């Protein structure tokens, strides 16, 4: 059985939990509280020298880290990853977009507002993340105005990757009311079979 080392509030960990659940794959959940620096212990650093969650233990002493890499691994040969070469590339394009243009602004703002010890001291940094965060949401809105999902008009790991932090963007101070296509897409994602929320 897979073992998932994770921190429950993490959107990156949630991506993996959501896909595992939707695929019907059982897994053992092992909580690592990043606020208590439980990913900085020698034991955890032996698992992932980068000291981050999530980490999926595929078999004894075989570990895979980086949430989107885990999504790719798990979705191989399933409907969650398209077979056509170009569509697969489009999925990767959205995964890279999520990590470089979306997560650094929306997820980081959420962390600083809700989990940092003194959010007030980070206010200037949070404000700097507003414009690029809204820009990323604008890119998604443009795509979703004419498409039900991000790639191939069907639900894939591209949607899972971007849903994770978009659906809690308000916790980072982002107002989604100006993005009706994103709001409709969030509802479609939540209606997928075996959907679970971030706290599950």
UniProtKB/TrEMBL annotation:
GST N-terminal domain residues: 1-82
Entries under Pfam families matching the protein: GST_C, GST_N
Xref: SUPFAM superfamilies: GST C-terminal domain-like (SSF47616), Thioredoxin-like (SSF52833)
Domain GST C-terminal per the UniProt entry, residue ranges: 84-200
InterPro entries according to UniProt: Glutathione-S-Trfase_C-like (IPR010987), Glutathione-S-Trfase_C_sf (IPR036282), Glutathione_S-Trfase (IPR040079), Glutathione_S-Trfase_N (IPR004045), GST_C (IPR004046), Thioredoxin-like_sf (IPR036249)
Protein family per UniProt: Belongs to the GST superfamily.
Protein's name according to its UniProt entry: Glutathione S-transferase family protein
